[in-house]
Design a protein that fits this description.
The protein has 386 residues and is an alpha/beta fold. The protein is built from 13 helices and 15 strands. It has three domains: 101 residues, no CATH class; 231 residues, TIM Barrel, CATH 3.20.20; 28 residues, no CATH class. The strands form three sheets. The protein has a nine-stranded mixed β-sheet with strand order 4-5-6-7-8-9-10-11-12. Strands 1-2-3 form a three-stranded antiparallel β-sheet. A three-stranded antiparallel β-sheet has the order 13-14-15, with no helix packed on it. Strand 13 and strand 14 form a beta hairpin. Helix 12 packs across helix 13. The radius of gyration is 22 Å and the shape is globular. The protein binds iron/sulfur cluster (SF4).
């Protein structure tokens, strides 16, 4: 059953609602729904944040001491999802500085995936044979405290220049083996429709390009960005895949539901890349609910990432065992569509390595003893090979 009202939708037992708007309750609808208004009113300072939530001593300390390391930026929409009093609120953990950010450990790295090491030109990482990562901006509407690219995101000195974009186009043109382009950043949706249209038009004119993937967290932090005009523009460039980044069911609001619907109606296939974050989503029940909500929003759960070894995010890291345990609780207990792949993005640039619970109990000759999700054992006999 699906039931829709002006600001909520119910799909089966799942409800997507519009939350109250905290200090922005009196804001005219027209402004609230305007993504540029949301961008311009971002919460960036300690004083502004204190008006929205009751900050803990730890958050105040982290705000002050992390100021020169990584910017704060929170859209009114995302800030309105924060619990005013609960420091453990998952939205707060992801957007307000935490004391854990001030710690560094010997294993921490500025660029754990060695993205700079595989850069033939400043906007491109070319690691795998047939695809490239193309950085088109280093801005984002919300600066996620767990960001793996803290080294360059939010740093105005690392902004992508026109000359660098042009060099990236020339590189892609000169490499016919590239068929798939991941358009990333920062968040590419921080650019205007006009600029994105120019980039996509230019890339689409290259004969060997087959698909684009847009990596964006705007569906989560600024769903107002997905306007009808933006969707019309994307339709010209299909096939376009969208990889987004929901981490908690609380982020699955009515506004996010509508943004995903618009993109899906425009022909985009949407996948979600969750990062496993301690205190946010390191719980099988939360992951199950998140994945069910995503499917109802027409978003396919794609990956769960083990948290990278980036500097200042160690407080978010769980054990790898926690990730495997989550998969153990999903596989078989819910439909395969709600089962993303758990991966460790190998430090040093080794790529994504999938990890699964052990389902092979033993192998004797042609007989494989396997266990299912209920821990029951079954024997599969391979054909005799000639
Ligand atoms: S949206 Fe992505 S790139 Fe931007 S701060 Fe968040 S995790 Fe980093």
């Amino acid at each position: 059953m699906k039931k829709e009202t002006e600001n909520s939708v119910q799909v089966g037992r799942l409800k997507f609602i519009s939350h109250s708007r905290n200090i922005w309750e009196e804001t005219p609808e027209e402004d609230w729904n305007n993504w540029m208004w949301q961008q311009s009113k971002r919460v960036k300072t300690l004083q502004a944040c204190e008006k929205v939530i009751n900050l803990s001593e730890g958050e105040v300390k982290a705000f002050k001491e992390s100021a020169d390391k990584f910017n704060v930026g929170i859209t009114p929409y995302y800030a309105s999802l924060m619990d005013k009093d609960d420091v453990n609120c998952p939205i707060r953990q992801q957007s307000v500085p935490q004391v854990g950010e001030l710690l560094t450990f010997p294993e921490d790295m500025a660029d754990p995936l060695n993205e700079e090491g595989d850069m033939p030109t400043p906007c491109i990482t070319h690691r795998y044979p047939d695809r490239v990562l193309f950085y088109v901006t280093h801005n984002c509407p919300v600066y996620c405290r767990h960001c793996t690219r803290k080294r360059k995101v939010a740093d105005p000195s690392s902004a992508t220049m026109t000359k660098q974009l042009e060099d990236a186009f020339l590189y892609i043109e000169a490499h016919p083996e590239i068929r798939d382009i991941v358009i990333s950043g920062g968040d590419p949706l921080s650019l205007s429709d006009k600029k994105l249209d120019m980039i996509l038009t230019r890339l689409r004119s290259i004969p060997h390009i087959e698909i684009f993937r847009l990596g964006t967290r705007n569906l989560v932090t600024l769903p107002q960005r997905v306007t009808d005009e933006f969707c019309e523009m994307l339709k010209k460039h299909q096939p376009v895949y969208v990889n987004t980044h929901f981490n908690h069911p609380k982020e699955c609001t009515y506004e996010a539901y509508i943004a995903c619907k618009k993109l899906a109606d425009a022909g985009c296939v949407i996948g979600n890349q969750t990062v496993l974050l301690k205190g946010v989503n390191d719980d099988p029940k939360i992951m199950m609910e998140l994945n069910h909500k995503l499917l109802a929003m027409r978003v396919r759960p794609y990956y769960i990432y083990q948290c990278d070894l980036s500097e200042g995010i160690s407080h978010f890291r769980t054990s790898i065992e926690d990730g495997i345990n989550i998969i153990e609780h999903l596989r078989g207990h819910t439909s395969g569509l709600a089962n993303p792949t758990f991966v460790v993005d190998a430090p040093g640039g080794g790529g994504k390595i999938p990890l699964l619970p052990e389902y092979l109990v033993k192998k004797e000759g042609r007989k494989y003893t396997l266990r299912n999700y209920e821990n029951k054992e079954f024997v599969y006999t391979e054909p005799e090979l000639k």
